[in-house]
Specification:
about 400 residues, alpha/beta, 2 domains, eight-stranded mixed sheet, Nucleotidyltransferase, domain 5, 15 helices, six-stranded mixed sheet
């Protein structure tokens, strides 16, 4: 069995999973948290899960702890390659690529487009290459799947010089998830992937929707950064650009302050004044919390509006697919979204929708309705497959 170690590194976290790309079987996975802060630790999840404290709390130490655990379980000999999630590849990267010094330089150049993500991704790459120099390392980009978007979908109505000189355009994200879900939908419908026309809605703390024609992305809700588009856990999604100078003035802050507010203090958290966790908000809504109800209503309103808009890209629609933590586990939000799409003929099968939680997949619309599905996503397996294909 050839396994791939998949690394998803954040500024203070490092997620990892060792899996077989062909079967999807997971040998070990886990999460290192609070890196660079007091209380840094790594949690291993497997047959025997446990938590391990990190003394220094650095990314390199976390990587070393992961490798030591793999070695202790006699799993290191099965590692064929290392796949790294990289959020932004700009226009340079249209698919996965084996990492060398030139690729690292190009990823670093894209950091101006994703300052919250690419620098953290690079930390994980450097740490992994330091400890596993004998293995091939592959970068898999969130943006790559969306490089098939036509210019009328990715260009902003701003001076063309901003695009030509600074790369200001829509790039889109969650590409590995949207691609995986497209492939799963093709399996569900027993059709070739390159004949699938659909809307994929990846809903979680970060959310985006994507229009897919013949297996290729033609439009998506996220843009230059992962801030554009749908309402998310702490991100605002679409807003009037004029809000930025207005907020700078009334809040007596700078652009960085407004950026922090829109990325970390808005979305479901900002609207509800309670939580960014959809599960908590659904519970609070059921108990009469008005802020939670308002936040969820805005969420489904904007989601349905986005799905309807993305449909204008399709010659036909084979399915609307809900995925991600919210998409897979919040039947009431799926139902409320599809009810807003009733003009298009969508009718929810309440019983079928209710049982599609906790990993159970299936059709959630009634007979005679256009098809909507709840399907699981597996970004790690997609990264592993792309990695192994290059090794």
């Amino acid at each position: 069995m050839s396994s791939v170690l998949v690394i998803n590194c954040g500024s203070s976290s490092l997620k990892f999973v060792l899996l077989d790309p062909e079967t999807g079987e997971v040998a070990l996975k886990g999460l290192a948290e609070r890196l660079g802060q007091p209380g840094a630790h790594v949690l291993f999840k497997g047959d025997e899960g446990y938590e391990f404290d990190l003394q220094q709390g650095a990314h390199s130490e976390a990587m070393q702890a992961v490798l030591a655990e793999l070695d202790k379980r006699d799993l290191m000999t099965k590692v064929r390659a290392v796949g790294h999630r990289v959020v932004h590849g700009g226009e340079r990267f249209q698919g996965a690529i084996t990492i060398d010094d030139d690729v690292l330089t190009a990823i670093e150049a894209c950091s101006t487009l994703a300052p919250l993500h690419n620098p953290a991704n690079l930390i994980g790459i450097h740490a992994a290459r330091q400890h596993l120099p004998h293995l091939p390392h592959v970068a898999v980009f969130d943006t790559a799947f969306h490089q098939t978007m036509p210019s009328h979908a990715y260009l902003y109505a701003v001076p063309m010089s901003l695009y030509k000189e600074h790369g200001v355009r829509r790039y889109g994200f969650h590409g590995t998830s949207h691609r995986y879900v497209c492939q799963r939908t093709a399996q569900w419908l027993r059709k070739p992937t390159d004949e699938i026309c659909m809307i994929s809605a990846h809903l979680g703390n970060g959310s985006s929707a994507c229009a897919i024609v013949d297996g290729k992305s033609v439009d998506t809700t996220m843009g230059l950064t992962p801030l554009e588009g749908l309402v998310m856990g702490t991100r605002s999604g679409d807003i009037d650009p004029g809000i930025l100078p207005f907020l700078c003035e009334v809040l007596k802050t700078d652009v960085q302050g407004v950026n922090e507010l829109l990325n970390r203090k808005s979305g479901l958290l900002g609207l509800s004044e309670l939580s960014n966790d959809c599960r908590e908000l659904l519970e609070a809504e059921a108990q009469g919390h008005q802020g939670a109800h308002l936040a969820l209503e805005v969420f489904v309103h904007r989601l349905a509006k986005a799905i309807a808009g993305l449909m204008t890209n399709l010659p036909r629609i084979d399915a609307v697919v809900f995925t991600g933590g919210i998409g897979e586990n919040a039947p009431s939000l799926r139902a409320r979204t599809l009810q807003r799409l009733g003009l298009f003929g969508y009718r929810v099968d309440a019983q079928a929708n209710a049982v599609c939680v906790g990993g159970k997949e299936g059709q959630i619309t009634a007979a005679g309705s256009p098809l909507a599905l709840a399907l699981g996503t597996d970004e790690e397996r997609t990264i592993a497959r792309d990695t192994l294909a290059l090794c």
